[in-house]
Write a structure and sequence with these properties.
Layout: E1 7-12, H1 15-25, E2 29-34, E3 37-41, E4 48-53, E5 72-76, H2 80-90, E6 94-100, E7 105-111, E8 117-123
Parallel strand pairs: 1-4, 5-8
Antiparallel strand pairs: 2-3, 3-4, 6-7, 7-8
């Protein structure tokens, strides 16, 4: 199998709110959009995102009323501290402040208007032996 593109499809209550959040704060661009639908992409290798409005009939009946929950959308980035500073300056809702885990993961989280948790991560040399 050769995977050429990865896309994450999220069912949300307000497509426009998530679309605006992702384009404003995370550099996504709208590839296609219609009522209750948006396809977002980036110029780099980040995962594409499709947003579908909850209840839309394009979804199978058992999926129509579900909403994205319990999901953390994680992106590995360079210069995590600069990204956090930029997002704070833009007024993005940082819901977990920058921290470093003993195994070398530095991260912080923000949450979009539909409750989608986005985690930005940078890997560093661990500061302590996790044993």
């Amino acid at each position: 199998m050769n995977v050429s593109t990865s896309t994450l499809s999220l069912t949300v209550a307000d497509v426009d709110a998530s679309r605006d959040f992702l384009t404003t704060h995370l550099g996504y661009q709208v590839a296609m959009a219609a009522d209750g639908f948006a396809s977002l992409t980036r110029e780099d290798t980040a995962v594409d995102i499709v947003l579908l409005r909850r209840g839309t009939e394009v979804l199978p009946p058992e999926q129509r009323d579900q909403q994205a929950a319990g999901l953390i959308l994680a992106f590995t980035v360079g210069d995590l501290a600069a990204e956090e500073a930029r997002l704070r300056a833009e007024g993005a809702p940082i819901t977990m402040p920058l921290r470093e885990e003993p195994w070398g993961e530095r991260l912080f989280q923000l949450t979009d208007p539909n409750g989608i948790v986005i985690q930005l991560v940078e890997w560093v040399t661990p500061s302590a032996d996790p044993r």
